[in-house]
Amino acid sequence: MTAIPAYHEWRATAADPAFTEWLRSAAEPDWSAVIDHPFATAIIRGEADMRRYLVQDFQFVDSFTALLGAAVATAESFESRARIGRFLGQIAADTERGYFHRALTALGAGTGPAKPEPVTEEFLSLMDETRRSQRYPLILTVLCVAEWTYLGWASRAEFPLPENFIHREWIELHSGPEFAGWVAFLRDELDRIGPSLAEEEQAEVLGLFRRATELERRFFDMAAG
Ligand SMILES: Cc1ncc(CO)c(N)n1
């Protein structure tokens, strides 16, 4: 494995010196494996069996929403806090939650408690630990991986989208200008804060970014069965 240069070394030679670009490039090959994952391709084609995936992801989204709450609590300005709070209230707790209820009902799965798969457990632990740290850079890092990878695969979809609402709305929730704007906000926050962190903290952020990306890949592997 090639060693990953520290941010300040990397940025001297990078075409795009953004902090999140350093993180993303260091998360390869997992990053591209998530974006190009066969399960994501099956969603885009309207062919994925969504039941196990959505039952597991409903648990993910609960911890993710709690993590958004921690981001609201730790953000450094009212504008950032309001931006995250809006996404929490309008998307996570409303549009997306409504989708889960309709989709899980249509799949005959229900919205009650379900047994988490091992990768789900690992992801929930990572998010819960990050939430408890109450450290904004770490919280942003996990949010950024989750949202940016999802924008990546969902943006591969072309019109017309699948007819089945379970595939179509899942793609719509993670693509389009509004979701792209949300991801741009998360990246901008991390691009603003990351460069002034101490080198050890930058390394910690990098480790967390890579770990979360690996979990995204394994989450799709789990869904593909
Ligand atoms: C596993 C996973 N990663 C990212 C997202 C997007 O929030 C999601 N719903 N599920």
UniProtKB/TrEMBL annotation:
Keyword entries, A-Z: Hydrolase, Thiamine biosynthesis
Active site: 216 (proton donor)
Record bears the keyword Phosphoprotein: no
Gene Ontology MF terms in the entry: thiaminase activity
SUPFAM superfamilies to which the protein is assigned, alphabetical: Heme oxygenase-like
Alphabetized CDD domains for the sequence: TenA_E_Spr0628-like
Enzyme Commission no: 3.5.99.2
Pfam families per UniProt: TENA_THI-4
GO CC list: cytosol
Pathway field: Cofactor biosynthesis; thiamine diphosphate biosynthesis
Segments forming domain Thiaminase-2/PQQC: 26-223
GO biological process: thiamine biosynthetic process; thiamine diphosphate biosynthetic process
Binding site for substrate: 57, 96, 147
InterPro entries, A to Z: Haem_Oase-like_multi-hlx, TenA_E, Thiaminase-2/PQQC, Thiamine_Salvage_TenA
Top EC category: hydrolase
Catalysed reaction equations from the record: 4-amino-5-aminomethyl-2-methylpyrimidine + H2O = 4-amino-5-hydroxymethyl-2-methylpyrimidine + NH4(+); thiamine + H2O = 5-(2-hydroxyethyl)-4-methylthiazole + 4-amino-5-hydroxymethyl-2-methylpyrimidine + H(+)
Annotated function: Catalyzes an amino-pyrimidine hydrolysis reaction at the C5' of the pyrimidine moiety of thiamine compounds, a reaction that is part of a thiamine salvage pathway. Thus, catalyzes the conversion of 4-amino-5-aminomethyl-2-methylpyrimidine to 4-amino-5-hydroxymethyl-2-methylpyrimidine (HMP).
Family statement drawn from the similarity comment of this UniProt entry: Belongs to the TenA family.
Protein name: Aminopyrimidine aminohydrolase
Organism encoding this protein: Thermobispora bispora (strain ATCC 19993 / DSM 43833 / CBS 139.67 / JCM 10125 / KCTC 9307 / NBRC 14880 / R51)
